[in-house]
Amino acid sequence: MPPVISFHFGLPEAGLLRRLKAVGIKIWGCATTVAEARWLAERGVDAVIAQGAEAGGHRGIFLTDDPVRDASKQIGTLALVPQVADAVGDIPVIAAGGIADGRGVLAALVLGASAVQVGTAFLVTPEAATSAVHRAALKTATDDGTAFTNLLSGRPARGLINRVMAELGPISRDAPAFPTAGAALAPLKAKAEAESRSDFSSVWSGQAASLAVEEPAADVTRRLWAEAEALRQHFL
Fold this sequence. Notes:
CATH superfamily: Aldolase class I
CATH topology: TIM Barrel
Radius of gyration: 18 Å
Number of domains: 1
Strand order of the largest sheet: 1-2-3-5-6
Number of helices: 9
Largest sheet: 5 strands, parallel
Distance between the termini: 39 Å
Shape: globular
């Protein structure tokens, strides 16, 4: 039995949550706005993941009727974390988005987070199931090389800008509904990846991809904490 279940895109129905809590499972939920964080807190989550706009992959947007339109309104981690921390009181806040080294870890903790969630920095580790074309793209990532797109899944997600994003989007009202958009691109994706190109692939990445280091996942974890602790002792 897992100790924690983390939900994206809101929460399931209340009955299921009660059953999970009854057997001791902690519930985490992802928020991209203060309103979403309050909604999660009102439903009894044990922790709120504050997902800043810098984060790679799918946005956890769930309180809007139009997540495509509202993707442009997404809030950065630096602004989101302290506002969420103030809004949810004693509920722990986990900061996510743009955190790939000890500087980001310490900054999040100073802003009111109890922990951080790191994604892109682990995509180049040997343990990650990242595809060869995805790894190759990450190695040349730049700070301005990502964008939100709905072309690859039907919902806004941050990824490295590739051919399909540049030519058709990155956001398009014509994209099939989530989660069917990827099926429409599957033949093109397969052909391109066979030629070592990520033109039609979901190359998810946060904005701090260039800070990622190719080393074992355990070493990444230890290094981030060691860097944060050294900075804490120096500045605080």
